[in-house]
């Protein structure tokens, strides 16, 4: 089952205001000004406990406070909509000046919740007949009705939980920090290459006995290794000081010392026990992360 993650995505829209021109018949009354503040969305992802701690759900909430001051009465309606990484919109909250949340939760079992999300706030102000509104700034006037649409990025949800870490520098010497948080030696992209379920499937297909793409040219992991073991090997690669290089297929890779993981290929290493592992990752991903392409015992 999913377990709540400490990481929470938040995104906010700038506050704003706009004034209505009231009918001439009540021109002596004070002008009416409508405002919005605190427009924001929050996403709370949960991840499975077992390695590689894949995404389970993302619970979303949204809020805004729309209100008007002045003698011209205005009716207010608001809604908050999120668009998922597939481009499908979802209503997160709706109501009057402060919308009520719908309890929307994206389930990874039903759709892909990992990736970039965007938010849209729709604020509708309906004044007395004969009133007029200025347009612009994301607001469209139609007689006494003003509709303001505020949009922005809501954040990028990673497909697996990102382990706690720091980024290695010369001063950290690729070691553990005082708080026992490992420092990662990132590839030149500066992104964290995540060991996802898709990457693990590719590794098992190509570098485990019985895999659909195994042949004599490929190093093989020992069959008893679990996903948690692969996660530990990945962590060793991320914390090693060995250099990344761009390989002939356009991916970054590094080879690092690691014993007891598997054997060399039979065609290049005679199936001997491997003392190294090679980690291959995307050249570029999205946002702060990329993805592991494959990982195998020894240099290929």
What does this structure look like?
By secondary structure, the chain is mainly beta. It has helices at residues 197-207, 227-239, 266-269, and strands at 2-4, 9-12, 16-20, 32-48, 55-69, 75-83, 89-95, 99-101, 105-107, 115-126, 139-142, 145-157, 166-167, 183-184, 192-194, 220-221, 245-246, 252-257, 262-263, 276-281, 289-297. The chain folds into two domains: 2-157, Immunoglobulin-like; 166-297, no CATH class. Strands 1, 2, 3, 4, 5 and 9 form a six-stranded antiparallel sheet that branches. The protein has a six-stranded antiparallel sheet with strand order 8-7-6-10-12-11, with no helix packed on it. Strands 15-21-20-18-17 form a five-stranded mixed sheet. The two termini are 37 Å apart. 33% of the residues are buried. Residues 1-6 have low confidence and may be disordered.
């Amino acid at each position: 089952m999913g377990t709540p993650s400490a990481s929470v995505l938040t995104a906010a829209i700038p506050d704003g205001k706009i004034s209505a021109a009231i009918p001439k018949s009540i021109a002596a009354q004070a002008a009416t000004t409508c405002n919005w503040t605190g427009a924001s969305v929050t996403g709370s992802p949960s991840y499975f406990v077992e390695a590689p701690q894949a995404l389970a759900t993302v619970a979303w909430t949204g809020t805004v406070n729309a209100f008007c001051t002045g003698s011209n009465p205005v009716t207010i309606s608001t809604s908050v909509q999120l668009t998922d990484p597939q481009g499908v919109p979802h209503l997160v909250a709706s109501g009057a000046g402060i919308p009520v949340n719908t309890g929307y939760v994206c389930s990874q079992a039903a759709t892909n919740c990992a990736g970039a999300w965007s938010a849209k706030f729709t604020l509708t102000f309906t004044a007395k007949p004969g009133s007029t509104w200025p347009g612009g700034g994301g607001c469209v006037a139609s007689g006494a009705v003003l509709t303001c649409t505020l949009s922005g990025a809501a954040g990028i949800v990673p497909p697996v939980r990102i382990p706690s870490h720091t980024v290695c520098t010369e001063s950290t010497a690729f070691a553990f920090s005082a708080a026992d948080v490992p420092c990662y030696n990132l590839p030149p992209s500066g992104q964290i290459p995540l060991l996802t379920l898709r990457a693990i499937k590719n590794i098992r297909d190509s570098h485990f006995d019985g895999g659909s793409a195994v042949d004599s040219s490929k190093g093989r992991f020992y069959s008893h290794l679990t996903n948690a073991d692969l996660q530990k090997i990945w962590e060793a690669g991320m914390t090693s000081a060995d250099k990344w290089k761009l390989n002939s297929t356009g991916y970054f890779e590094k080879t690092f010392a690691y014993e007891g993981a598997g054997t060399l290929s039979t065609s290049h290493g005679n199936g001997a026990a491997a003392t190294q592992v090679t980690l291959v990752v995307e050249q570029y991903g999205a946002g702060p992360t990329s993805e592991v392409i494959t990982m195998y015992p020894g240099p290929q």
